[in-house]
Amino acid sequence: MHLLHYHQFILIFVTLIQQCNGFWWSLGLPSFQLWSSSHRSIEQKQFCTSLTFLTVEQRFYCENNPKIFSIIIRSLRLAIDECQYQFRNQRWNCSLFNQPEMFGKLIAR
């Protein structure tokens, strides 16, 4: 990975490590990638509030730092791609909840 990608990858884990469950992977799904930092603050607040799996502190960063949050979303996409590449020949290949279609859409670009 390039140095920039490495820093983005580290940012993901520093930000999301407090609540480590499978839901944070969903930030890398296409529906979250369509969201961008250009949304108005009211829409952004609604978006961040809808992410019920975020902690209070993570929601605060989401609402007040839209550019950082969009970087996290892009970084998660990179992390999912890298995970799928590294585990491509294994039984578990970064899928969640036995739903291969969850990440199947991500691969088709």
Task: Name the descriptors.
109 residues; mainly alpha
Structure, described:
This protein is mainly alpha-helical and 109 residues long. The chain is 61% helix and 0% strand. Helix 3 (41-50) packs antiparallel against helix 4 (56-64). The longest helix is centred in the C-terminal third of the chain and has 21 residues, at 66-86. Belongs to the Wnt family. Residues 1-22 form the signal peptide. GO terms for molecular function: cytokine activity; frizzled binding. It is found in: Secreted, Extracellular space, Extracellular matrix.
The overall number of domains is: 1
Helix content: 55-70%
Strand content: under 5%
SSE topology string:
HHHHHH
Look at the structure and give the mean pLDDT: 67
Report the span from N to C terminus: 20 Å
Unreliable stretches covering 5 or more consecutive residues: 33-38, 98-109
Largest sheet: none
How many beta-strand runs?
0
In one word, what is the shape?
elongated
How many individual helices?
A: 6
| Category by helix and strand content | mainly alpha
Rg, rounded, reads: 14 Å
Function: Ligand for members of the frizzled family of seven transmembrane receptors.
Organism: Adineta ricciae (Rotifer)
GO cellular component, one term: extracellular space
InterPro entries: Wnt
